[in-house]
Amino acid sequence: MSTQLPSRTDVLIVGAGPCGLTTALSLQKHGCTDILVVDSHAAGDNTSRAIAVHAATLEAIDEFIPAQRIVDAGVKATEGRMWDGYRFQPWANFGALEGYTKFPFILFVPQHVTERVLGDVVKEQGIRVVRPAKVVDLVPNEQDPDVTNAIFEDGQVVQARYIVGADGTKSTVRSIAGISYLDPDGDDIADATLGVVADVTLNYAPSAPTEPLMVLASGAFSLCLPLPASSYAGRTVWRIAAGLPAGATPPHAPPTAYLQGLLDAYGPGALPPRARGSTQRLAITDTLWASRFVMASAAAATPFARLRGAGGVLLLVGDAAHRHPPTGGQGMNLGLRDAAFLGPVLAAHVRASATARGAQGVPRAQLDRGLADWAAARHARALKVIRTTKAMLARSSWKDELVWYWGVVPVNWVRVRNFGMWVLGVTGITARVVPWDLSGLKGR
């Protein structure tokens, strides 16, 4: 039986994941309270998915809810280790952010836990979330061009002045609006490499309980990250992720045997015993969840438009607006900041539009300037993150082999990369610069 939806709302948010919930909370904080959040699924996904939350994201969230509620549910990591194929290299020291942020660390917390914390606050604030409720079409309202009729699968119609698409890479809102979603460099998704992600238990810890480990292998890379025991009934669980060599095709739900092979070939299992600190094979004892992913990039042409060019306002946040490789743990963070920064701008537009409806001759372009500026800033930031994550992925996946130039000059780019990292490490540049880049504080 369908849930009865309201006939009207100022803002309809399509998608009740972290980005949709953050948009709602930021809007309410800034005085916009006529909000409806809908999602096509009956319940949120109960898998960990994105796990890294960076300082700039926590700072943005802390503007409208106590971000400490999320921090308390995760693992705080200030330092990590990187194996370059031969030795450990210095990595970022997030303690360098001390004094510049309340959150001088990377937080590892499962996405469903972040979503649950945000959802609890949404419920406390009285914001209405309706599940399942699937939007299938958006059409201009015949009586008011600034209103969009959202048509739902069960035939219900909600009239909304603003539609926010927080509905993922296959966004219905973006598709109906006709907004293109392409790799900004023209790369074909068919050429994208694949990766594997899984939450597992191991027979012994590959690193300290709060220390991420990155392994650079020939043509591939892997990560081993600690997850909060509180999310797994007190069990010590590790997130393993691997970017595979070009042409590798992992199964959709990789079994333990396949994951063990990756651990042995590209992960901490490939480290020599002296580096692992044990002669015992590093073995997966249980697989809690596993999936594969495509390391592709795309960006919407714009995260702000009007339906059919002249109708109601449409906005995109999170994966609906951009996607990119998971290197650096930037994806969910960028989306959450999209949503947090949209709140005050959209709330101001709601107020200005209400005032303008009682006036004459207020140009729409003038009303929309704030949203256009937000869209331009978030689009530019998305493009920068796409470029950065692509470059990180490329450097992490170089093959350890000689490449001959002009038939006479041999170059091993892995050795060049490793030497460059060593120089940056011993000079302290890595410890100082990387935390600012990854945390998002350098450019939110």
TrEMBL record:
<keyword id="KW-0274">FAD</keyword>
<dbReference type="GO" id="GO:0071949">
    <property type="term" value="F:FAD binding"/>
</dbReference>
<dbReference type="GO" id="GO:0016709">
    <property type="term" value="F:oxidoreductase activity, acting on paired donors, with incorporation or reduction of molecular oxygen, NAD(P)H as one donor, and incorporation of one atom of oxygen"/>
</dbReference>
<dbReference type="InterPro" id="IPR036188">
    <property type="entry name" value="FAD/NAD-bd_sf"/>
</dbReference>
<feature type="domain" description="FAD-binding">
    <location>
        <begin position="8"/>
        <end position="355"/>
    </location>
</feature>
<keyword id="KW-0285">Flavoprotein</keyword>
<dbReference type="InterPro" id="IPR002938">
    <property type="entry name" value="FAD-bd"/>
</dbReference>
<protein>
    <submittedName>
        <fullName>FAD-dependent monooxygenase</fullName>
    </submittedName>
</protein>
<keyword id="KW-0560">Oxidoreductase</keyword>
<keyword id="KW-0503">Monooxygenase</keyword>
<dbReference type="InterPro" id="IPR050641">
    <property type="entry name" value="RIFMO-like"/>
</dbReference>
<dbReference type="Pfam" id="PF01494">
    <property type="entry name" value="FAD_binding_3"/>
</dbReference>
